[in-house]
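Figure 6 in text form: structure in, sequence out.
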């Protein structure tokens, strides 16, 4: 889960993220919208060049990634879910 935390940290900062399928596994982020997924050197190179060459796309990925983290991984949201779990268990 260490790699996933790094992905989430980068997304939370609004950084466009390109990661492997393994790094994105377990996240509900939408590939192509919240982050980009690449498993080969060629795919990484393609995505990196595309993002570097298209500032609007880079900004859009960064914004969408941050929104994803705020909606799904914010401490307040997580705490509310945890409280619900405790209530259900009690």
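Output sequence:
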């Amino acid at each position: 889960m260490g790699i996933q935390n790094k992905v989430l940290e980068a997304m939370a900062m609004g950084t466009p993220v390109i990661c492997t399928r393994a790094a994105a596994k377990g996240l509900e982020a939408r590939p192509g919208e919240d982050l980009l997924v690449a498993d080969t050197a060629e795919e990484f190179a393609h995505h990196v060049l595309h993002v570097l060459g298209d500032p609007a796309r880079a900004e859009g990925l960064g914004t969408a990634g941050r929104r994803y983290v705020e909606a799904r991984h914010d401490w307040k949201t997580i705490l509310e879910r945890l409280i619900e779990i405790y209530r259900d268990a009690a």
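Caption detail: The first strand starts at residue 18 and ends at 19.
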